[in-house]
Write a structure and sequence with these properties.
Strand content: 15-25%
Number of helices: 13
Shape: globular
Distance between the termini: 56 Å
Length: 329
C-alpha cells in the first residue's frame, strides 16, 4: 500500500479545502470500499480526509413531504429509520440486502453512491482494465463475464455498478447534493452516473474536488414499493440482478409506476421504456411481462450472461405482481 497522509475534516468547507490541496486526495467515509481498493493497489491516494465528523448525519422531511438524507448517515441508520421504512420501503430493503450488518454499520450513504465496480479484472493489477487504466482494454468481454452488463455497456467496459441502494434511489428520482470551492450544486441521479461510453474511468458527473453532502428524495410516488435482489448465494453477496419498483394502482389500472434495475448496467438502470408501456394500462402479469420485454429488447448479452434477460423479465413480473396484490387489498 502506498504511503499516505491523514487529515480529519470537521466541516464541509474544511473538507473541500483539503481536497483542493491535493489532486490525489480522497474522502474516507466508512472505508468499506476504498480501503479494500487501497490494499489491492487500485486506489493510491496520497491523502485521506476522514469525513466521519462532518455534520451530515441528519434524516429529515423536506417542506414538500420528501426526505433529506445526510451523506455521512450510515447504511444501518438509514435502513432502520421509521420514515424511510414507512414511505420508501424499497430503499430500506435495498440497504438491508446490500451488505452484512457489520458493513452497514460502517458504510455511509455518500460512500455507497461512489463505490467502484466489483469486476475481478478491475481489482487485479496483473490484468488490463479500461476503468483502471484508460485504453488498456476490457478482458471481461472475452473472459469471465457471467455477472456483467447486458444493458448500456460498450466495447470499452461491461462491468456493472454494485450498489443496491443506488437502484432504489434511481426508482425514487433522488437528487444528489454536493459542495465545491465554487459553491453548492445538485445532480438528479439519472445525471449523476454517466453512461459507460468510451471513458469508463469517468463514472460520475461530480465536479473535481466535490464533497457529496446529501440526498433528497421527492415525496414517495406510491404507497407500495419493493426491492428484490437475486444473488448466487443466500448470504451476503453482490446481485446478479435486482429490481426496485413502486406502483400505484387505481381500479385495476396503473396510475404511476417506477422501475429501476440493478446489476445489469454500469449504473443503476431506470426502466423508462417499461414505465411508459405500463402507464394507464392493466396491472396484471401479462402487461408486466410485455413491459419487461419492451425494456429488455435493448439488451446485448455476452455468451455467458444471456440468462440475465430471462432473470430480469421474471423478476419484474414477480415484483410488480406482488405490489399490485398489495394495492388491491
Amino acid at each position: 500500500m502506498r504511503e499516505f497522509g491523514y487529515e480529519r475534516a470537521y466541516d464541509v468547507a474544511g473538507a473541500v479545502a483539503l481536497l483542493g490541496t491535493d489532486p490525489d486526495a480522497r474522502l474516507l467515509g466508512g472505508g468499506t470500499n476504498l480501503v479494500d481498493l487501497m490494499k489491492a493497489g487500485v486506489e493510491r491516494p496520497t491523502l485521506l480526509i476522514d469525513a466521519q465528523e462532518l455534520p451530515l448525519r441528519g434524516i429529515e422531511f423536506t417542506p414538500d413531504g420528501g426526505l433529506r438524507i445526510g451523506a455521512t448517515v450510515s447504511n444501518s441508520d438509514l435502513a432502520a429509520h421509521p420514515d424511510v421504512r414507512r414511505h420508501y420501503p424499497a430503499l430500506a430493503q435495498a440497504l438491508l440486502a446490500g451488505a452484512s450488518g457489520q458493513l452497514r454499520n460502517m458504510a455511509t450513504v455518500g460512500g455507497n453512491l461512489l463505490q467502484r465496480t466489483r469486476c475481478g479484472y478491475f481489482a487485479d493489477l496483473s490484468k488490463p482494465c479500461n476503468k483502471r487504466t484508460p485504453g488498456s482494454g476490457c478482458p471481461a468481454i472475452a473472459g469471465e463475464h457471467r455477472n456483467h452488463a447486458i444493458l448500456g455497456a460498450s466495447e470499452h467496459c461491461v462491468a456493472t455498478h454494485p450498489s443496491d441502494m443506488a437502484v432504489a434511489l434511481a426508482a425514487f428520482d433522488a437528487v444528489i447534493s454536493y459542495e465545491t470551492a465554487e459553491g453548492p450544486g445538485d445532480l438528479p441521479i439519472d445525471a449523476f452516473y454517466l453512461p459507460v461510453g468510451d471513458a469508463p474511468h469517468i463514472e460520475t458527473a461530480l465536479p473535481a474536488g466535490a464533497v457529496v453532502t446529501g440526498i433528497t428524495l421527492p415525496p414517495a410516488p406510491a404507497a407500495h414499493s419493493r426491492y428484490r435482489k437475486v444473488r448466487e448465494r443466500a448470504s451476503y453477496a453482490f446481485a446478479i440482478g435486482s429490481v426496485a419498483a413502486a406502483l400505484d394502482v387505481r381500479d385495476g389500472a396503473v396510475r404511476d409506476v417506477r422501475l429501476a434495475f440493478g446489476a445489469v448496467a454500469s449504473r443503476p438502470w431506470r426502466a423508462r421504456t417499461a414505465e411508459r408501456a405500463l402507464a394507464g394500462g392493466p396491472a396484471d402479469a401479462e402487461a408486466f411481462a410485455a413491459a419487461a420485454d419492451a425494456e429488455l429488447a435493448a439488451a446485448k448479452s455476452l455468451p455467458e450472461n444471456g440468462y440475465k434477460v430471462t432473470l430480469m423479465r421474471n423478476l419484474v413480473v414477480a415484483v410488480l405482481t406482488q405490489l399490485a396484490e398489495e394495492a388491491a387489498r
